[in-house]
Amino acid sequence: MSLLFSPLTLRELTLRNRAVVAPMCQYSARHGVANDWHLVHLGRFALGGFGLVILEATGVTPEGRISYGDLGLWTDEQVGALKRIVDFLHQEGAAAGIQLAHAGRKASTPVPWRRDFNETEAEKAELAFESWTPIAPSPILQPTSAPGYTTPREMTLADIAATVEAFAAAARRADAAGFDTVEIHGAHGYLINQFLSPIANHRTDAYGGSRDNRMRFALEVARAVRAAWPAGKPLFMRISATDAAEGGWDLDDSIVLVGELTALGVDVIHVSSGGVGAYGMTPAPLYQVPLAEAIRRTGATTIAVGLIDDPRDAENILERGEADMVAFARGALEDPNWAIHAHHVLDGAQYELWPKQARDRIRGKDKLLGLRQG
Ligand SMILES: Cc1cc2nc3c(=O)[nH]c(=O)nc-3n(C[C@H](O)[C@H](O)[C@H](O)COP(=O)(O)O)c2cc1C
């Protein structure tokens, strides 16, 4: 059996395999509440054989959403619709994760396919449109050519404490919804990444300046979420291992951060990169894998992600010890049955990941045509 399709145990959670669906924003919620779109979009990845499906960046506060269409977990009213999705993922054999997020200065942006706040009054009512002034470590506009960013208000110490508590409260609600894991979003230039990066954090108090000070918010969030999250359930954190920008957060910093996160009880580091602005890496197949490998050398359990499409590449990453799991975003959209198909590529005539409603028919067709038998 391939490593990719071998189970993995993290605390009391056993994943059926190591193929993970990475979080993907859908901008399709009203007031942060999940609906049929989310059920079908996510449910097909469970039907498609993935071991763990991580739900999109989910706002821990209303002002922490990237757009008004993001999922949220800032009130108990948002739990029920997520529980329905979790129950379906479980029924179909996948574990369920949710990414808890605060966008900081990258909040209150237009829904990407609209590109601007051009909703009519009728659409605003229908979509539950909202826009607001974001908060961030420093009042510095996100540098980008894309439209829609707003100069944020600098967070007070009270804002910081309330946001830490909001992450913890959202984790408690995620547990109530039945999630198996939460992933703290510390990557892609969002709030936690903004505190870490000297590019976005110009504070002169205990949360800015030295690396230790810039790490303070990330560590406070991790400590609070770990305390709120059941001891038997694993905690993930996604980081941008490097800003890949002059004067930014870099891999050496991440190695120090991950040491502290591990000591606090963060079990898995999901290794991405970039997001604070200028980005010096050129995306290409497997380009972020060396970052996951470097983080894994600290002893951490890691997920590699980013332009990993070929099942043999994913298997090699695990065999070479570069990561413990592999995550897929666009590849999962391209082929929601990616995991089922990859299992056939790596392990031949294996049908257990097919839903029972399809399994025997597919096996019969393969036999008839002499496919996937070897
Ligand atoms: C539609 C879409 C939405 C995304 N939303 C999120 C998100 O909510 N949180 C996050 O950390 N990354 C998000 N990403 C980034 C992916 O999780 C992933 O890291 C990235 O796409 C690289 O992996 P891939 O090459 O397999 O697509 C998103 C990507 C896509 C394509």
Core attributes:
12 strands; alpha/beta; globular; binds flavin mononucleotide; TIM Barrel; two-stranded antiparallel sheet; 374 residues
Account of the protein in words:
It is a single chain. This protein is of the alpha/beta class. The chain has one domain: TIM Barrel (Alpha-Beta Barrel), CATH 3.20.20.70. Helices cover 37% and strands 14% of the residues. The chain has helices at 36-47, 79-91, 121-127, 157-177, 191-196, 211-228, 251-264, 289-296, 311-319, 330-334, 338-347, 356-369, and strands spanning 8-10, 13-15, 19-21, 52-59, 95-101, 135-136, 153-154, 181-186, 235-240, 268-272, 301-305, 325-328. Strands 3-4-5-8-9-10-11-12 form an eight-stranded parallel beta barrel, surrounded by seven helices. Strands 1-2 form a two-stranded antiparallel sheet. Strand 1 (8-10) and strand 2 (13-15) form a beta hairpin. Helix 1 packs parallel to helix 2 (79-91), helix 2 (79-91) packs across helix 4 and helix 4 (157-177) runs parallel beside helix 6. The structure holds flavin mononucleotide.
Question: What is the total number of structural domains?
Answer: 1
Number of helices: 12
Q: Taking all residues together, what is the mean pLDDT?
A: 97
Number of strands: 12
Q: How much of the sequence is in beta strands?
A: 5-15%
Bound molecules: flavin mononucleotide
Q: Which stretches are low in confidence, meaning pLDDT under 50 for 5 or more residues running?
A: none
Major sheet: arrangement of strands: 3-4-5-8-9-10-11-12
User: Considering DSSP H and I runs of 4 or more, what fraction of the residues is helical?
Assistant: 25-40%
